[in-house]
From TrEMBL:
Pfam families: Glyoxalase (PF00903). Residues 7-138 form the VOC domain. Gene3D superfamilies: 2,3-Dihydroxybiphenyl 1,2-Dioxygenase, domain 1. It comes from the Eukaryota. InterPro entries: Glyas_Bleomycin-R_OHBP_Dase, Glyas_Fos-R_dOase_dom, VOC_core. PROSITE patterns: VOC. This is VOC domain-containing protein.
């Protein structure tokens, strides 16, 4: 039998600079830092207010030899137009147009499009570690 009542709890991202990554998600998407248990290594937990969604930022373990994000911050920048078909995490927001303006003001390279129905707008970009991020428009009820 499949799990009952499953819901998304958190997404984790590893980084060689979790503080830089935390500041990005706090500034760009409004995450808040929350109490983090002591795991014996550096971790920062972020919460998206009133959603129950968490982002766990974990210090990279160099000897594990896990790959960096899909497009490492130390690699040449890859065009975000490829993100709709690549690995990314998506957030929905109600202030889409002003959010897009904020990304432009911060000099963040983006790819923007609307779904064929014209009702949902999307913008794709990379976080400082090269992880794909999508933000989609949402109308509040």
């Amino acid at each position: 039998m499949a799990a009952k009542g499953a819901c998304l709890n958190h997404v984790s991202r590893e980084s060689s600079d979790i503080r830089r990554l935390a500041e990005f998600y706090k500034e760009i998407l409004g995450f808040e830092e929350v109490e983090t248990p002591d795991f014996g290594f550096k971790v920062i937990w972020l919460s998206l207010p009133s959603t129950g969604f968490f982002l766990h930022l974990i210090e990279r373990l160099p000897e594990a030899r896990l790959p960096e994000g899909p497009y490492s911050a130390s690699s040449p920048t890859v065009d975000p137009k490829y993100l709709p078909r690549g690995h990314h995490v998506c957030f929905s927001i109600s202030n889409f147009d002003s959010f897009v303006q904020t990304l432009k003001e911060k000099g963040i390279e983006t790819f923007q499009r609307a779904l064929p129905n014209g009702k949902v707008k999307q913008i794709f970009f990379f976080d400082p570690d090269g992880n794909g991020v999508e933000v989609a428009s949402r109308e509040d009820p």
